[in-house]
Amino acid sequence: MTTATAAPETTPISLGSIAPDFSLPDSENKQWKLSKFLGKKPVALFFYPLDWSPTCTKENACFSRDLSRFGKCAEVAGISIDSVWSHKAWKTHMGLNHTLLADMQRKVCKAYGLYFPDANISQRATVLIGKNGKIAWVHVEPDITKERDYKELEDQLAKLQ
To answer: What's the predicted TM-score (pTM) here?
Structure first.
């Protein structure tokens, strides 16, 4: 008898574990490194499937519009598998003012256990990392077409203070 286990790349990172450090290019093709913020402030990583898709467009408009609300508690960065150039065009088109990171090799979404292999994209998920570099909260949206719960997110961000 064999038992199947979920691949680490599709099993969300555990609470309390050390956040894997990474460096990804942003929409200006400048490297954004997680460790730059650790010890200074919490970090909120918003993994989303694709630029230009309906739900991702709504969510990123909300993050940008409410950045002062979310950004007062943590450094905010959106991560998808899209290219730097897609991020740049989308950010300009949408008037977004938050950081977008390009995980084209899927290394970060896999390291955080948020890879969705059926579509070769990341899941819609939120990862909050405390100043100490440990995972403080993870939420994976079971329905990839559904937006996050912003109130729940805000409540979790407030706990990091």
So the answer is: 0.91
